[in-house]
Design a protein that fits this description.
This protein is an alpha+beta fold. The chain contains 15 helices and 51 strands. The strands form twelve sheets. The protein has a nine-stranded antiparallel beta sheet. It has a six-stranded antiparallel beta sheet with strand order 27-26-32-39-38-35, with no helix packed on it. It has a five-stranded mixed beta sheet with strand order 10-11-13-12-16.
Length: about 1000
């Protein structure tokens, strides 16, 4: 619109080979014959531009061109135009890798900030909406830059942030948030909180770019840390079809609420709106004014008139007829991302600002404003107010399937995620016992989380991930080595943190009188439990030829144990492992176990195995398990207290059955997924295999457990070895699947199936920061054919409940095996609502993720039920028990007891037989960790899995001086009332909460 009119471009040309169209003297009339003012100017690419008055409604007009036949009229409809405001947000999409080796990317991202600072200086005198602005997409890049630049330059940049000419956003990088732990989600905000406090600046916005989906716990983490706005750009890349699940009904601007009620205001852009985050470059904002003048009006017209401005088939959009259900964009304010070039990791440039200035000098409307995210969101809130809809629930990641391309590194990261919370809690136990703090703990904890999250960052490889160059998109192997190193270092760092916390605790605990050594079995969970405790007895403590006994330090009772030799013994610590069963291990506490040497035969000191009548049946107080070697699967699991069969006898699959798929798509072609789809004919499913019959390797019944080991050959693996453990007194079956897998470029997947019985089951999944599944809302468009889970899945029917826990790999499917190509059709039938399939590994991506993997690794699972003693009261599916089962089963597998050897040098050191140092009253609420903040202050992190608000008592037997609600990062909020040794914490439904306790 210029001076209240509309610009129409008319192509110049010929009606035939001899007649040239001449627009001199043309006239424009309404259908009623009324003359309409029109002005003609030269337009782009040799066209003429006609200026006509703006209209209030659709208006048909007739154009007469004298150079044509006098009777020829060109009839067209002039539409009303919106008075658009376009907020152009200039940033660099931050891939840590992909376009270059990581070191090069990081160096150039820092250089982009140097350029941005120079451009900010040079544009100070320009009009506010037209001068250069720079948005830091990921605060990690600012942190890295600030650490390597003089302070006065950092202060100068922060000054521009205060002025609103630059923007820092709150998240460190773009992540697969579905693979983060709940505490890690919150730890992602620590850098932003520190920088905000250091420079006294708000950081109200966050960005997530590229990854099409975000986990349910993120809005709670953002809102808790004063982040109000979230700008996301979903790159479908042929791997995402949100319109299958209602994604076309999701508006671009909406409020995303967590189950707690906390929320963030979201702006969504995606592939059919302009290659996700490349909207601006596609319209010419990285080029020049003429390109934008040519493309922007057409884009806005399409945005206002069509479901999406671009049609199906572009940018990895496998379009369907569902897309037409979408209402065209209704508002006159738009957030438009732009980059320095059409590419990731693009530099800061002033082209967009120059274009905005020239545009605004030329046109009255639309208005282009060079903005920050906060500028846009504040403007949108003022304009739209109550028109903004609210959505709740999980908004899962369509790309998370790609993490199956790194099955073994993922086991390392998940192990690190468990160890870091164990380390925090062990350190807190020491603080509760001695009042002493672990030196440097805050830094060690933060470093561990940083390394873990760096692996969960979304760039898992080069653009051409199968290549071996040292440069650019072909630097696949170099980039993958850097990425895998983060998983290795994450596990190492978390392990060192836990080792250090344990050593400091051990140094404060004494040896019991008369004992050769004392060990403390530490429970880092809030669940009192009967459990197996595995102790390493050094040869320096007890020589290998010396017999010994173990005793419960509370009663002196002898503890039968099972001995296990050290592996790789010539190169590891000399000694042996012993495992004993300990009863009533207290919540967040420990029991002392005393070792006494004897004069007996060392071989007879350990408990002997007992005779097994049926080697293919395992049984304890809670479960009976039967194995079918001919089919290499678990044939039956019976809950003894109720007699119910946990496995579906009519399923296509057996329990823990291995399935291997090969696909017919070819690897080694960049973005092949953008062009690859399938149909219900399953053209891309090449073959599918089950395992061959198994051989029985071992069957033991000893003082600790019933154990069965079998092994089988299978397609896609050299061998698979399964170890089943049914420990005495524990209501859970532990399954350890060890796979030896060769490298291949063929497209492949492997699954383990768990077909649970029950009519019309309610299935729910623990995801980072919350729960999703049956009966719970999810953001329209979230994937439903697969997802990543944190620890557990529950299956509950009228017959009872069961919890399935995965320790090492996160990907699951339900009911069927989906073919992993758009539109992800079912490849098995019928749909089995209680069947959970663990998707162990795949290599279906063609870019970014690695295309091949080999490993020999163990993937562990557990299947848990209610303890037999609690099953005698109430109905099998009594409300609340399912969450208790999930919390207890995941604790048993993911957080087994830790063992600390007493190492106090003083003979007068205290040797307590038992301590319970902290308790949580509701077994449906998980204790994530207890973290010592120093000075007698503890941060208690909790996660409720209850679909209703709950009041939870947190008790410290030693007494609480004061308490306050807190963020997960340890920032105090409102004070809480303390009643002696207890404080009550109110937790919203399905939400995390934290409290700070000051010890008495």
């Amino acid at each position: 619109m210029q001076h209240g009119g509309i610009a129409l471009d008319v192509e110049a040309g010929t009606t035939d080979d001899s007649t040239v169209i001449d627009v001199n003297g043309l006239t424009l009339r309404t259908v009623d014959g009324e003359d309409v003012d029109v002005r003609v100017e030269d337009g782009p690419r040799g066209a003429y531009r006609l200026f006509v008055p703006a209209v209030e409604s659709d208006t048909v007009m007739r154009l007469v061109v004298p150079s044509l036949d006098a009777d020829t009229e060109l009839t067209f409809t002039v539409l009303p135009v919106r008075d658009w405001t376009i907020h152009v947000v200039h940033h660099s999409h931050f891939d840590i890798g992909y376009t270059d080796p990581q070191a090069i990317v990081l160096a150039h991202q820092r250089s982009f900030l140097d350029s941005a600072l120079e451009l900010l200086r040079d544009s100070g005198g320009e009009l506010d909406g037209e001068r250069f602005r720079w948005v830091v997409e990921s605060i990690f890049t600012f942190e890295s830059w600030a650490q390597s630049r003089p302070q006065h330059l950092v202060d100068e940049f922060v000054g521009y942030v205060r002025e609103g000419r630059a923007e820092l956003t709150a998240l460190p990088y773009n992540l697969h948030t579905d693979t983060c732990s709940t505490d890690e989600l919150h730890e992602l905000l620590r850098t932003a909180r520190r920088i905000a406090a250091q420079y006294d600046i708000p950081i109200p916005s966050a960005m997530q770019t590229d990854v099409p989906g975000t986990v349910v716990g993120l809005p709670d983490a953002l809102a808790e840390n004063d982040v109000k706005y979230l700008a996301v750009a979903h790159n479908w890349a042929g791997r995402s079809m949100p319109q299958l699940n209602g994604g076309q009904l999701l508006p671009r601007l909406f409020r995303w609420a967590a189950p707690s009620g906390k929320s963030v205001l979201v702006w969504l852009t995606d592939s059919p709106h302009g290659m996700a985050y490349m909207e601006g470059p596609l319209l010419g904002f990285h080029q020049d004014y003429s390109a934008v003048e040519d493309h922007l009006p057409v884009y806005l017209e399409s945005l206002a008139a069509n479901p999406y401005p671009f049609p199906p088939g572009v940018f990895g959009w496998h379009g369907t007829s569902h897309a037409v259900d979408r209402t065209p964009y209704p508002w006159d304010i738009v957030h438009l991302r732009t980059q320095g070039f059409v590419g990731d990791n693009a530099p800061a440039r002033r082209r967009a600002a120059d274009i905005a200035r020239e545009w605004n000098e030329t046109w009255l409307s639309p208005t282009i404003r060079i903005s920050t995210n906060a500028d846009f969101f504040e403007d949108a809130e003022k304009r739209l107010g109550d028109e903004i809809q609210t959505f709740e629930g999980d908004w899962g990641d369509w790309w998370v399937e790609g993490v199956g391309s790194a099955a073994y590194p993922m086991t390392l990261v998940r192990d690190a995620q468990a160890k870091v919370t164990d380390a925090q809690t062990v350190s807190a136990v020491r603080a509760l016992v001695t009042g002493a703090d672990l030196p440097g703990e805050a830094e060690q904890s933060e470093d561990t989380y940083r390394t873990i999250s760096m692996f969960n960052e979304h760039t898992w490889g080069a653009g051409n991930s199968w290549r071996f160059s040292d440069h650019g998109f072909d630097s696949g192997e170099v980039q993958w080595q850097w990425k895998v190193a983060n998983s290795i270092v994450a596990q190492q760092t978390a392990g060192e943190y836990l080792e250090r916390a344990s050593a400091f605790l051990g140094a404060d605990l004494g040896v019991a009188d008369g004992a050769r050594a004392s060990f403390y079995a530490v429970n880092t969970t809030a669940i009192e439990r009967d459990t197996a405790v595995r102790i390493f007895v050094r040869e320096s403590t007890v020589p290998m030829g010396t017999a010994f006994t173990l005793h419960d330090g509370r009663t002196g009772e002898s503890l039968p144990y099972v001995e296990e030799a050290q592996s790789n013994h010539e190169h590891r610590e000399a000694g042996r492992f012993v495992t004993a069963r300990v009863r009533s291990l207290p919540s967040v506490g420990f029991v002392r176990i005393d070792l006494r040497t004897t004069d007996g035969d060392p071989e007879s000191a350990a408990a002997a195995s007992t005779f097994v009548a049926d080697p293919l049946v395992l049984e304890n107080e809670h479960l009976r398990v039967h194995v079918d070697l001919s089919m290499s699967r678990i044939a039956s699991i019976v809950e003894l207290s109720t007699g119910r069969e946990l496995l579906n006898p009519d399923s296509l699959f057996g329990g823990n059955e291995y399935i291997y798929d090969l696909y017919t798509s070819a690897g080694g072609f960049n973005h092949q997924s953008n062009k690859t789809s399938t149909s219900e004919e399953l053209e891309l499913l090449g073959d599918r295999w089950r395992a061959r019959p198994a051989a029985l390797i071992e069957r033991e019944s000893d003082a600790v457990e019933e154990r069965l080991v079998y092994e089988y050959p299978a397609a896609g693996a050299e061998w698979v070895r399964v170890t089943l453990r049914l420990r005495h007194g524990e209501p859970a079956l532990v399954i350890e699947n060890r796979i030896a897998k060769d490298m291949t470029d063929a497209k492949e997947s492997a699954f383990f199936a768990f077909p649970f019985a029950g009519d019309d089951p309610v299935v729910r999944y623990e995801v980072s920061g919350g729960v999703t599944g049956d009966g719970l809302e999810h953001v329209p468009g979230a994937p439903q054919h697969m997802r990543a889970v944190r620890d557990w899945v529950t299956v509950e029917s009228a017959d009872g409940a069961v919890a399935w826990v995965t320790k090492d790999v996160p990907l699951v499917e339900r009911g069927v095996i989906a073919l992993p190509y758009a539109p992800f059709p079912a490849s098995t039938s019928p749909y089995e609502p209680g069947t959970i399939l663990s998707w162990v590994h795949n290599n279906v991506w063609d870019t970014n993720f690695p295309t091949r993997q080999a490993f020999e690794a163990t993937f562990s699972y557990a299947i848990g039920v209610r303890p037999a003693e609690s099953s005698t009261s109430g109905s099998p599916s009594a409300s609340g028990f399912v969450e208790e089962i999930a919390v207890a089963t995941s604790a048993a597998l993911v957080h087994p007891p830790l063992v600390v050897q007493a190492n106090a040098r003083s003979t007068e050191a205290d040797a307590p037989a038992e301590r319970s140092l902290l308790a949580v009253s509701d077994a449906r609420v998980k204790l994530v960790a207890v973290h010592s903040l120093g000075g007698g202050r503890l941060l208690v992190r909790l996660q409720s899995f209850v679909d209703a608000p709950v009041s939870v008592d947190v008790a410290v037997p030693g007494g609480i001086a004061s308490a306050a609600a807190a963020t997960f990062l340890g920032e105090e909020r409102e004070p809480l009332t303390v009643s002696g040794t207890t404080v009550t914490v109110e937790i919203p439904r399905l939400s995390p909460r934290a409290v700070i306790l000051t010890l008495a």
